[in-house]
Amino acid sequence: MALVSIRNLTRIFDVSxxxxxxxxxxxxxxxxxxVSDVSFEIEERxxxxxxxxxxSGKSTIGKMLVGLLPPSxxxxxxxxxxxxxxxxxxxxxxxxxxxxxxxxxxYASLNPRWRVRDIIxxxxxxxxxxxxxxxxxxxxxxxxxxxxAGKFPHEFSGGQRQRICIARALASEPKLIVCDEPTSALxxxxxxxxxxxxxxxxxxxxxxxxxISHDLTVVQHMADRIGVLYLGRLVEEADPDTLFDHPAHPYxxxxxxxxxxxxxxxxxxxxxxxEIPDPINPPPGCAFNPRCPLAAERCRTERPTLRDVRGARVxxxxxx
Amino acid sequence: xxxxxxxxTPILSIRNLTVDIPTRHGVLRPVNxxxxxxxxxxxxxxxxxxxxxxxxxxxxxxxxxxxxxxIASGEILxxxxxxxxxPRDEMRRLRGKQIGVVFQDPLxxxxxxxxxxxxxxxxxxxxxxxxxxxxxxxxxxxLEEVGIPGAAxxVDSYPHEFSGGMRQRVVxxxxxxxxxxxxxADEPTTALxxxxxxxxxxxxxRxxxxxxxxxxxxxxxxxxxxxxxDRVAVMYAGQLAEIGPVREVLAAPIHPYTDGLxxxxxxxxxxxxRLHQIPGAMPRLDALPPGCAFHPRCPYxxxxCRADPGPRIEDGAGRxxxxxxxxxxxxx
Lengths: 320, 332
Hints:
- The structure holds two protein chains of two kinds.
- Helices cover 32% and strands 22% of the residues of chain A.
- By secondary structure, chain A is an alpha/beta fold.
- In chain A, the strands form two sheets. Chain A has an eight-stranded mixed sheet with strand order 6-7-8-3-9-10-12-11, sandwiched between helices.
- Chain B is an alpha/beta fold.
- Helix content of chain B is 30%, strand content 21%.
- Chain B is built from ten helices and ten strands.
- Chain B has helices at 54-61, 88-97, 116-127, 132-145, 151-154, 164-176, 194-211, 222-228, 246-251, 256-263; strands spanning 12-23, 26-38, 43-47, 70-78, 81-82, 99-102, 182-186, 214-219, 231-236, 239-245.
- Chain B is globular and about 65 Å long.
- Chain B starts with 11 loop residues before the first strand and ends in a 69-residue tail after the last helix.
- The model of chain B is unreliable at 1-6 (pLDDT under 50).
């Protein structure tokens, strides 16, 4: 059985103006569908990557997975247990400690007034576990020195702080780590160090990652399976080789063509047309139809469902 | 529109530029003896990690260094004329007229309380001798040129009514409206999505080609440099590490830092092997090592790298500031 199973997950945010303003301006409620009917599974000890542009709902899915946001519809099941519906407190507790998260900004995700030792041990201390020597051991595992435990976050560089965040995520011996843009705030040479560390730790501890990123090259390097999101919908899912060699969905093709290539000297490609539509008022049918070169009448009326196409799952009427 | 350019004199020429920041604990040197030229119609990519001094060098050119940072030595020439010694008033007239600037965050570079048309006409009226109605006509033309659909209607919109990519187009129109000979683009696409980034890069390239504007493109993204720039200058710890045509520098780097930087960038063809790591991190400005600033992280360090003076790129010639550059038998 897959470690994580996400079924028909939907999240709707109410972004309406306050009640009185709506009454005076005679405006209806505004509902933003951040995630719409997304289903996928993450196998144990694999890296599942979610890619998409801003507003595609990738972070919202991550937050629903760790339980920071309740889903509006659908289910997140971890080892067959749905955290939003489960009533047995012991089960919830055991699953919760199996999940940890690493955030994008290592400057904002560490408390500046806490010593590194307390930051790293907090997930264990909060459950009344033994924390003696834990921070020191973890610091060495992420490539810092045990002596750093007594320091404060401001004494570290961005890359070192992200290592501290990783050490904290490892403290409660989790099975699944949700990494939300873990290297976007880092320089390339530091990014390489952090990505290598994450790969090593995955092998050492048997971890499973949900890797959220907008950077296609990083995703290709890290992932075993990739889900491409557009306007809150999963449009394509495949393994990296299939996705990068034979992208089936027109959006994936556009994204791959637009990504700058290190060897693309003086490359002149027609840049993609248009922008992501307003998620409060998405186009009917396929969300990509206003920008799609293949769009036909059917795309404007009927929303495509994910179909199996040569090892990939693609949500396009014309794929295959 | 300018059509003729004297290709022999570069639009921008920086000679041995050094920027100092005096502090209580000594003088910091974020830019240290940097020289480069940008010719008309050329895009020079300035690349480096955070703290390498790439933005500081750009700010020095536009005269927007925040005190106590100041130009300690060196020269900045625009169209052959020295601009680093100009009084504040003349520099202000020059900025906008001769030099256009595009910053990273399009929202903070636009005044949220002014319609974008007013912002464009204000700039043109300040720098060009034209009537307000002519300025408005040109503002609409400028918006059309940067690819804003329905420019005639949208000229009276406020910045918040535009998306991030459209705002960056407005900022570029703003930078271009006085027809400057040089544009400094400091991380112009870093805040944008991949598909919008591709649009903005294509726009910059087109404007550079059609107008013969010189562009200094500051970014940390090697992919953007590869696609957009003609030449590239790699900075490390305030110094120029390597400079040359983009194909040569990126495909066959001879400075160990550039080589390491390229190796640590995930690339499709490399598959899932471990990424090459440059050990350690860039030194802080108050703790620069003696000799070559890169020597503590360099795999090829020899004794002469550790002693002052460190390697420098000779004026006008030379490609890498390194005593032991990687030798390449074949150049791609």
